[in-house]
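Repro:
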Amino acid sequence: MNQFREEIIGGQRLVLADCLDFLPTLPAASFDTVLTDPPYPCIKRSYGTWTEAEWHAMMDVVVPQSRRVLKPTGSAVYILQPNSEKVGRMRPWLWEFMAKWGREWGMVQDAWWWNTCSLPGAAASIFGLMRSSLKVCAWFGDATCYRAQGEVLWDESDYNRMAALEAKAGRVKSRSDAQSGHSVDNARCRSAASRRGGVTPFNILPIGNGAAKDATLGSHGASTPFALCDWWLRYICPPGGSVLEPFMGSGTVLVAAELQGKTGVGCETVPEYFDIACRRVEEAVKKAEQERAQLTLEDA
């Protein structure tokens, strides 16, 4: 480990190293979750550019190592953005990645992040295509991997709350959807939502990304929003669990882990981003301490 620079901050271990060198040093079956937003091929960044073949070669190391260090009930989520070879022709690397590891490991469910703040680019405004706003959250693991749906239920809409009151008054029964052929007992569904404290989330997560304007992230131009990392950790990482982030960047995953009282290990190869991540985790430690102190005062 002498070749790696590392910092232990709160419950987080931050390592300055290439993840291809670092991951093999981790013990097997030692993490509950892998959550990461890797670099994408054919996109120029300050930290480098990969061809599609080079990117697949890198991930052919990262994914098996992720699988090796996960506990039997663990799972991994890779947040990835499709891109184009030219206007009107998408690159196939993302679908090749999902197909390969879906066969070799197993995709738990297709899941997507919808960046509701995405602006139309030239492909949309000039060439008549749609604005690009979805990233895949490629979720791999065993079919019975840990997931706590109760931790990520969505708030009910005002319409649903009103309909629930109507159901209590006996004015709403069941209906048959003429298009799908499904029969739904509205009263039962809405009472279940009230009992559980929320409604089942869709597999498309509408979360705006304003992180690029966050001054605390420095010059990192590909940051993942905190709300997305927080959501996935609540869903697939158990209380007091551990998470691995092989492409740590500015440290958002570890910030979310610290605030949830979970431990994390993050690896980053760019010193500038490593320093940003350390600073942000330090701030998260202070925030968590303040929140615990406030709860203590409220309980006193």
